[in-house]
Amino acid sequence: MFVSHLELADFRNYHSASLALAPGPNLIVGSNGQGKTNLVESINYLATLGSHRVSTDQALIRHGRDVAVVRARLEHGGRQLLVELQLNRTGANRAQLNRAAAKPRDLPRHVHAVLFAPEDLALVRGEPSGRRRFLDQLLVQLTPRMAGVLADYDRVLKQRNTLLKSARAARVGAAQLSTLDVWDERLIDLGSEIIEARGELVGGLRPFVGTAYAAIAGEVHEAELASELSILGAAPDEETEVSEQSVRSEIDRTEAVSAFTTALARNRRAELERGLTLAGPHRDDLLLRLNGLPARGYASHGESWSFALALRLASAALLRADSASGDPVLILDDVFAELDESRRLRLADAVAGYEQVLITAAVESDVPPALAAHTVRIRAGEVIDEAGGA
Fold first, then answer.
1. Is residue 262 annotated as involved in ligand binding?
2. Engineering a disulfide at 368: which of 141, 294, 298, 348 sits with its beta carbon 3.0 to 4.6 angstroms away?
3. What are 76's strand-pairing partners?
4. Is 64 annotated as a binding residue?
5. Has 32 been labeled as part of a binding site?
6. Is 31 annotated as belonging to a binding site?
7. Rounded to 5 degrees, what are φ and ψ at 32?
8. SS3 assignment, position 196
9. How many CA atoms lie within 13 A of 95 on its CB side?
10. Are domains 1-112+327-390 and 128-204+221-297 of this chain identical in fold?
């Protein structure tokens, strides 16, 4: 799959933009702050319904405007699909597929993209919440109905936490505890489905990560992934040491239900004291190991960059293997400036076979010439030049 045409209206710093894109590599060049990242962010938003830079949609709508529009023409196997998303400052967002009304959550079913940006170093060095978000966005692309499961879980979690806080304030009455049991059942049902799905995703990514790491770093290290589960006693959000008892390669739903039920019973007193749900997929982590050691805290800067890139390349490989719509659009946002010359060349080789690759750069010479086949220049939220044939 590739994006042949992109239009923006009042998205980020763009009043309006219309841009033709080509199969293969597309290099988007411009000084910092001109809008390069905003272009590729719009495509990634269609695929993930989320931004890699902000947590709410409000920042995506141009200042002083109430609506932003992203419209993309996708092509695959000679067929075209027009995808449109309208972001609203107030009210629900709206979507269209070939001019027919659709739900925004339907878009990831049709748009597949993988974006790597400098912020992704936090996948290795940052907090567990970033790694959970990484897994969940990929999960939704692979299984779009999981968007509803994740949203339902978040809603139940908020209700349960509200009840825990009121029970704490009321010093725990019988009515609050009986209501809590009802929310527990729903939390366990939805949470166990998420835990199982994430486990299967980690298992699917695992063989691709080692290959991708070797391709980027130019040397063989044992790059491993595993799930660190709070229902088995892990507390990654509280900076505790990794307990091998809580680390699993995969876990099926039946086992997850049993462990989740036990964890809620074990944590009941502490949860009532803190007014907070202490176990579930919202408290889990993706454990990254390099040569048997946790990458967070042990990997060097270069190793961390290679691991983060490997996670994104493994995601693209998994989407490519799973999808009937061809390759995902691979987006490399201001990545080459962070890499030495050898890693730049190896990354260029690793992405060369993808149907479409979008690269942004402030300095054109940072990007290997093989990835500059179609060059677009951006200045102050405007496309000022498009040139093919590097």
1. no
2. 348
3. 79
4. no
5. yes
6. yes
7. -60, 140
8. helix
9. 18
10. no
Tokens standing for residue 338: 């962070």
Q: What is the pTM of this model?
A: 0.89
pLDDT digits (tens, 9 = 90+) for 220-271: 788 999 999 999 998 887 766 667 778 887 899 999 999 999 999 999 989 9
User: Is residue 165 classed exposed, middle or buried when 0-12, 13-18 and 19+ CB atoms within 10 A define those classes?
Assistant: middle
Instruction: Name the residue type at position 101.
Output: A
Annotated binding-site residue? 34? yes
Give me the CATH topology for the region 128-204+221-297: Glutathione S-transferase Yfyf (Class Pi); Chain A, domain 2 (1.20.1050)
Tell whether 24 is in a known binding site: no
Q: What is the pLDDT of residue 389?
A: 46
pLDDT of residue 51: 85
Is 56 among the annotated ligand-binding positions? Answer: no
**Tens-digit pLDDT profile for residues 335-367:** 998 888 888 999 999 998 999 999 999 999 999
Could you say which residues of the chain have pLDDT below 70? Answer: 172-176, 239-242, 386-390
HSE-up of residue 385 (Cα within 13 Å, Cβ side): 8
Residue of 2, 15, 4 whose CA lies nearest to 383: 15
Tokens coding 137 = 């966005």
Are 141 and 47 within 8 A, CB to CB?
yes
